[in-house]
Amino acid sequence: xxxxxxxxxxxxxxxxxxxxxxxxDPERAAVEARKSAIVTHFHPEGQAGAIAIAVACAxxxxxxxxxxxxxxxxxMSLTPSGETRDGIEQARGxxxxxxxxxxxxxxxxxxxxxxxxxxxxxxxxxxxxxxNYVEAMWSTVEGLGDIDTNCAIVGGIVALSAGESxxxxxxxxxxxxxxxxx
Length: 182
Hints:
0% strand
């Protein structure tokens, strides 16, 4: 799935922490996201997916009260031109009145395992439920496709927007233990 020529979405699913760390500087988040993605995704589309999601995560920390248009405007301003950005543009114009399955049929759902087929739908799902982690996850699952990648991306954005307390305690208790280092 990765590899030097990969247009994959693994970089996008692992980049939430980059966006959170550079939340006060979305441009720097974009630069660092590209660096983090290039190791496994030399193709510009794989890097563009990581950039878009890191910028969305940076936005979620600092600007989540500004709404959906603000999110898409910032992401569009820093995502390089190409298929991924074109898909994000389409996601921006896709109404939230659609069901997630219908939106996935328009935007992709990750079943092709490439950023242009994953990132637009993930951003659409996240923007639909920026203040509700549970609804964001169920909405994302409803789109089918590469569910674990989509949920990792959406979960990163929405957790940063809605806060850790938006994640049900029974969900965090059921997860694998986190390794803590001092």
